[in-house]
Design a protein that fits this description.
By secondary structure, this protein is mainly α. The protein has two domains: about 80 residues, Rna Polymerase Sigma Factor, Chain: A (Orthogonal Bundle), CATH 1.10.1740; about 90 residues, Winged helix-like DNA-binding domain superfamily/Winged helix DNA-binding domain (Arc Repressor Mutant, subunit A), CATH 1.10.10.10. The protein is about 65% helix and about 0% strand. Helix 2 packs antiparallel against helix 3. The radius of gyration is 18 Å and the shape is elongated.
């Protein structure tokens, strides 16, 4: 699913109306962000029902707690953070763990969509396989930071908020990820993956 970029001028209105009890505002927020949340969730788990359940839980919780809601600076970030927490809690419950505790060891599958214009079709599959094998050698935290930065166009401040780390930590995670890619890839493949990341960022600018 392709993430939907929202019209930032309309989001405060939707949020305000939701807090006032307008069910149509909740529906509008769902339409704006459900695809992006599903895409994010699919990196954590292949269980489609679990992902959909977590998305539903986030929006049900928002509606139930609407009278106590504040005004987040970035609604998408708020939803991503709440959804991420829901996914981790759900995974822990399924594994029969009593308490929720995030660790470095959680699943997050990275994938690439390589534009055909950049490389001939016969080499596309081989290149994608090489790059994805390398990405999956990174830590889950590094893969998630790369996804948020280059596929969701999040700033380092936003990545830190979603992943519940400091801004300095977000820079450190990303820096280590890029360093690892540089060490693991050939110069040609490393240059190409940076080009792909740049293209992804430009698509959202």
């Amino acid at each position: 699913m392709t993430p939907i970029r929202s019209n930032t001028e309309t989001i405060p209105l939707h949020w305000s109306l939701l807090k006032q009890g307008e069910a149509s505002a909740l529906e509008s927020l769902y339409r704006l962000y459900a695809n992006a949340l599903y895409n994010y969730g699919s990196k954590f788990s292949a269980d489609q029902d679990l992902i959909k359940e977590c998305i539903q839980e986030v929006f049900v919780a928002i509606w139930t707690r609407r009278a106590q809601l504040g005004d987040p600076q970035n609604v998408k970030n708020y939803l991503f953070k709440a959804f991420r927490l829901s996914v981790f809690k759900k995974a822990n419950l399924l594994q029969k763990q009593v308490s929720y505790e995030e660790t470095e060891h959680y699943p997050f599958q990275a994938s690439l969509n390589i534009e055909e214009e950049m490389i001939t079709a016969e080499n596309n599959a081989a290149l994608k396989e090489r790059l994805e094998i390398t990405l999956n050698k990174l830590s889950a935290r590094q893969r998630e930071a790369i996804f948020l930065k280059f596929y969701e166009a999040q700033s380092y401040e936003e990545i830190a908020e979603i992943m519940n780390i400091t801004v300095k930590g977000a820079y450190k995670v990303m820096g280590r990820a890029i360093d690892a890619l540089r060490d693991l890839l050939s110069k040609e493949d490393f240059f190409l993956i940076l080009m792909l990341f740049s293209i992804k960022t430009d698509h959202f600018s």
